[in-house]
Amino acid sequence: MTELWDPTGTLRRTLWIGGAQWAGKTTVARILSHRHGLTAYHYDYHDARGHQDRRIARRVALGEPTENPDPETTWVRTTPEDMAAETIAGFPVRFEWALDDLRALFSERPILAEGWGLRPDLVAPILDTPRRMIVLLPTEDFRRHQLATVPRTSTLNRHLSNPERAQANRIARDRLVGEEAARQAEALTIRVLRVDGSQDADAIADEVADHFAPFLGRDR
Questions:
Q1: CATH of the domain at 116
Q2: What is the pLDDT of residues 2-19, one digit of tens each?
Q3: Which helix (H) or strand (E) is 96 found in, with range?
Q4: Global pTM value
């Protein structure tokens, strides 16, 4: 990102929740939006749905096939390390699409953006202070709890030749991508909050609200 175009100042006022899959980012963002009258931007939702036309247009421009990759190649005939590397390499382009979405929003209150593609290294150039961002990372025990209890964690195509391997690859990829986000955050002095399941979502939201307190009209 060479130059930040931010005509209404929305990006500069945004609060960012990044981190790993299954850490509770979306739930925390919804709680804080309700409590503090914030507009929430859910990266994962927009990236999976609203950005598909842009994704196809980019493939056309690059001379790549427009259809989605073969699911067997994506999930089964691969390694978690290759999956993580490919995912991380794709985040910069997808982040630019998210910035376009955010520029279209305006609120006198901060915008609260959450999602695993909001990477610390991509967000950092926008921040006037690292306190405008926090990274949520689940412990391994909490990750297993989420995988066992959240229905959408098991939505891979059941027609794959080896769905068990596909799911294991996905879980390992998500772990690697989350750990890399935490390393980036720590190098950039952005706070990492490890979620271990000992607190409920409201308590985690309290911690995140305390972190964002200067921008929410609070004293702490």
A1: 3.40.50.300
A2: 468 898 899 999 999 999
A3: helix 80-103
A4: 0.91
